[in-house]
Design a protein that fits this description.
The protein has 465 residues and is an alpha+beta fold. The chain contains eleven helices and four strands, in the order ααααββααααββααα. Strands 1-2-3-4 form a four-stranded antiparallel β-sheet.
Length: 465
């Protein structure tokens, strides 16, 4: 059974190794790839650009609208009839009507006063400001998501490496236990315990391989390609305390600068302005319209006669050209008297929407404060945790060496060695994870405060090798 599991483990490792790889890349390079290829940030960019177009669309309602039209027409008809002239020798047998005309016109319309339209123009700047805040928040979030995916891969690699080393160490311990049992130095129970620990180590390795594959997929989802060779933090990773060093200062900064909170406040301003827009539907509107037109028509009525004696026909045309041109203008006032109650309903709806937006602001503010405090405490606690785990690794390594030495001379059992190996493995894994958590919490703190920039990624990238 152990051999079959080992074959499965090696197959999984070969699958990961067979994935397309590039030269070792740092966090900054991965972020630049994500900025170009992440569908989420590209969607946010498209939404932002589409929002910018509301300004020219809104302005079009208050600037003059000029229209030009032109056309040409033509018609032809026949009208047979019977008539005679005085002597009874000439008969009228019908008539033809033919006309052609050309025309063109130009019209101008201009809104002079519309209170709802004025308030809608004020909303445009608020909507664009909200779009800018939302897009900038998405870019900051991309920095954090990239770091999460990047360090998620490194953490999974650390875990897998630790599990592989642990499995190999337990495998060697199992072999020693089997030899010792064969010569009668230990009981069979120690061999069985070593076998059980080895089987568990193999299972843990398989699970670690699966987690690593998942993290690779998460990174590929972000940047659109597989990258398996990432730079890791240097051994002497700087542990910097947040500046300012007070959590309250960070909370106040976040309440002023957090982009999601700013966006929600702009939503509330837009909702408040929308009340004025809806109230404007009860006010009169004033508009001006003017136009000029020019047309010309050439028409011909042709009478057709027949000579009763000879049977010959002849026609008598009668041309009737005409032309017409002129202009018009009007100043229009419209005052809504009754619209079935829809205006009142829209005003009430706008009031309720503003109330809802204010609650969103309060909720976002509370979430922002919680996230800021959590991130700050995360940075502070991880600094202490990194230092403690660094010492724990050294202590666990020394304890394992002593236990192995005791095992050689017979004062320690196989179980004692296995336990100490597990302690060292856990300490090493937790130490690596705590360093990644420290870096990510620092980014999340700045994101919550609205001050996260690419310079923070560049700083972390300088700590990688």
């Amino acid at each position: 059974m152990p051999n079959a599991i080992r074959i499965l483990t090696l197959t999984a490792l070969a699958t990961v190794a067979a994935q397309p790889t590039l030269a070792q890349e740092g966090l900054l390079e991965i972020y630049q790839r994500a900025l170009q290829n992440d569908p989420q940030i590209r969607r946010e960019e498209a939404l932002y650009l589409s929002t910018l177009e509301i300004r020219p669309m809104a302005r079009s309602a208050v600037i003059p609208n000029l229209r030009l039209g032109a056309g040409t027409t033509g018609s032809f008809s026949e009208n047979p009839f019977g008539a005679s002239t005085g002597a009874g020798q000439v008969f009228g047998v019908g008539s033809e009507f033919e006309s052609e005309g050309n025309s063109w016109n130009m019209s101008l319309s201009q809104t002079i006063f519309d209170w709802g339209l004025i308030k809608q123009l004020e909303q445009v700047d608020q909507q664009i400001a909200r779009a800018e805040a939302t897009f900038e928040a998405a870019r900051q979030n991309l920095l954090v998501r990239t770091a999460d995916a990047y360090f998620g891969v490194l953490a999974a690699e650390e875990t897998l490496a630790s599990e592989v080393l642990n499995r190999e160490a337990i495998g060697r311990q199992l072999e020693q236990a089997q030899r010792r049992f064969e010569v009668g130095l230990i009981a069979i129970t120690e061999v069985e315990q070593a076998q059980a620990n080895y089987d568990l180590a193999v299972a843990n390795t398989i699970q670690a391989e699966r987690v690593l594959s998942i993290t690779f997929e998460a990174l590929r989802e972000l940047i659109g390609e597989y990258i398996t060779n990432l730079a890791g933090p240097t051994a002497e990773l700087p542990l910097l305390t947040p500046d300012p060093a007070s959590v309250e200062d960070w909370v106040q900064m976040a309440l002023r600068q957090n982009l999601t909170l700013i966006s929600s406040r702009l939503d509330a301003d837009i909702a408040e302005n929308n009340i004025a827009v809806q109230r404007g539907s009860r006010l009169p509107t004033l508009s001006l319209s003017a136009g000029y037109s020019d047309s010309s028509t050439d028409s011909t009525v042709t009478l057709i006669f027949e000579d009763a004696t000879t049977g010959n026909r002849f026609s008598v045309p009668n041309d009737n050209p005409s032309a017409r041109s002129g202009y018009n203008w009007s100043l229009n006032v419209s005052f809504p008297l009754f619209s079935g109650g829809i205006n009142s309903a829209r005003i009430r709806q706008a009031v309720y929407q503003r109330r809802a937006s204010l609650e969103v602001v309060e909720l976002t503010a509370r979430q922002t404060e919680r996230q800021t405090r959590d991130a700050y405490l995360g940075v502070i606690s991880e600094i202490s945790r990194v230092r403690a785990l660094r010492q724990a690794v050294e202590s666990s390594r020394t304890a394992l060496e002593a236990t192995e030495a005791g095992f050689e001379v017979g004062t320690q059992t196989t179980v004692d060695v296995l336990v100490q190996q597990e302690v060292l493995r856990r300490a090493q894994t937790n130490y690596a994870l705590s360093r990644y958590n420290y870096l990510i919490n620092g980014l999340r703190l700045k994101e919550a405060a609205g001050s996260l920039t690419i310079r923070d990624i560049e700083q972390i990238d300088g700590w990688l090798e």
